[in-house]
UniProtKB/TrEMBL annotation:
Record organism: Pedobacter cryophilus
Listed name of the protein: Uncharacterized protein
Top-rank taxon, per record: Bacteria
Amino acid sequence: MRNSVLEITEQEYLIKLDKSEFDLSFIHSLLKRIQSEQTFFKRIFDDEEDMIARRSYNDDLDVDHLSEK
């Protein structure tokens, strides 16, 4: 990457890449992947904040089984 620029402001990230080095379809697929991973990780964090889901998971761990005694 000879001529790439990353500008960071309070509101946005701006990445400038040389057209001769990056194919548009590659950039498009890269952006899709970033967005899908962002959605994936957002869901994980939302689940951690969900008291009902977290409580239900913990209840399953606290159950005693007769075979363990």
